[in-house]
Amino acid sequence: MTGEKAYLDLCKHILNTGFNRDDRTNTGTCSIFGYQMRFNLNEGFPLLTTKRVPFKLIASELLWFIKGDTNIRYLLENNNNIWNEWAFEKWIKSDEYQGPDMTNFGKRSQEDDDFNEAYQEQMKYFKEKILRDDDFSKKYGDLGSVYGKQWRHWRTTQNDTIDQLKDVIASIKQNPHSRRHIISAWNPEDIPNMALPPCHTLFQFYVADGKLSCQLYQRSGDVFLGVPFNIASYALLTHLIAHECQLEVGEFIHTLGDAHIYSNHFEQVNMQLQREMRPLPTIKLNKEKASIFDFELTDFELINYNPHPSIKAPIAV
Fold it and tell me: What is the C-alpha to C-alpha distance for residues 233 and 235, in angstroms, rounded to an integer?
């Protein structure tokens, strides 16, 4: 299974064979364990066409990881709100929060219009404080030792740090056939200090025939909302590293542990499955930038992306 069909087949497989399971968010899921998809990056950039997936959010989040940043201020400056809920939850659970009760805000905001109005008001205030108040941003905007920290500043028992991303790029250049081109985001010691333990936990690069491929192991995948982002994000990362290492792109291989569809996403998934796939877009990078650490949002161009309309669904926090 390749291309967008691989993703749609995953959705069908979960709905047809998955187990109904409770989960951390008390939303409920239909879940399977162990699945793999393959995407040939020479056949197009794997951004879904059966619903619009916002590329700028994916690109800005990836650049956030690459920078080693863990504070949502950079994301908010780029109009990216995908990590807001985890930072917001940290604030509303603090002694400093004096607003209305926001317990279980993710679910309640979908079910109660009055509550949703209060929630949106509190979230707006929270975002404004993150953007303008340095002390507040440091305290409540930081998500802890999440992806960017582990990729760029892995802490050792000797209190040194390892720049995994920089080291892997150097390794690909110097010893392309190594079987050790690996980056891990799963640092057991730091898990308690993360707003959300890493879902995409480990990835490995592979060079053959002048092409760079990447395989991701993802322990947990929100198949409707999260996995389309993950596919495109790691495809973009593969393009970036291939560019710096003067290689062509090969495959992105996506291996999932617990792949699940939340119970309040069933209707949206079935709507998406009724739509016809369209040709995948292509991605163009600014060739004047030699290092992935120099890229900004304006250095990416998505060409011929013509998807079906977006499909909204609540996020489980």
Answer: 5
**Annotated binding residue 221:** yes
8 Å CB contact between 14 and 7:
no
Selecting among 30, 199, 214, 245, the annotated active-site residue is 199
Whole-number Cα distances in Å, 67 to 99, 165, 310: 34, 10, 29
For residue 78, the tally of other CB atoms under 10 A from its CB is 17
Residue that the structure tokens 């047809």 belong to = 16
Per-residue confidence in pLDDT tens, the chain, 317 aa: 458 999 999 999 999 999 999 888 778 999 999 999 999 999 999 999 999 999 999 999 999 999 999 999 999 999 999 999 999 999 999 999 999 999 989 878 878 899 999 999 999 999 999 999 999 999 999 998 999 999 999 999 899 999 999 999 999 999 999 999 999 999 999 998 887 899 999 999 999 999 999 999 999 999 999 999 999 999 999 999 999 999 999 999 999 999 999 999 999 999 999 999 999 999 999 999 999 999 999 999 999 999 999 999 877 66
* Cα Rg of the chain (Å, integer): 20
DSSP secondary structure code for residue 157 in this structure: T
Biggest CA pair distance of the chain? 60
Walk me through the domains of the chain, giving residue ranges and CATH numbers.
3-70+146-303 (3.30.572.10), 84-142 (no CATH)
- Which structure tokens are listed for 45? 């950039």
Active site residue 199: yes
The answer to whether the annotation marks 24 as part of a ligand binding site is yes
Distances in whole angstroms, Cα of residue 87 to Cα of each of 81, 177, 207 = 11, 40, 38
Phi first, then psi, for residue 107 (nearest 5°) are: -80, -45
Is 95 marked as binding a ligand?
A: no
Euclidean distance between CA atoms 261 and 276, whole angstroms: 21
